[in-house]
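Progress against Task 2.4 (sequence-to-structure conversion) is shown through the following example record, which the project officer requested during the mid-term review.
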Amino acid sequence: MLLALSLFFASFLAATILPLSSEAALVGALHEGLPPSIALFAASSGNLMAIILNYFLGYFLYEKMHAKLQTSKTGKKAYEWGHKYGYYALLLSWLPIIGDPLTIVAGLLRLNFWYFLLIAGSLRVLRYYLIIISF
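Structure tokens generated for the chain above:
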């Protein structure tokens, strides 16, 4: 139980902007004997909770950032591109380094939460599933 809880928190923290590896924690938990189904659930739920937090952090920063973006030509263009290509960009949200900031930007752009969760969440669960079956 403690191992699953540790994996949950490691996966949660890794999906924030902290430089941690949830993949390494997952492999370590599997190596220590955590059953694959529990490992998948713990890692996925921790990671999903964190990207939801990231989304809402961006969502609540909208008022402050929107005004700044609209005052500059580059900001307006970036905002337009974000709305035009935001859901496509979420296809990269499972990647290390760039993926977690993309989840914050999705909230900042106020992309549809359910589409966000479907795209970003399913890709993260799929990533863990692929690691588990290759272990």
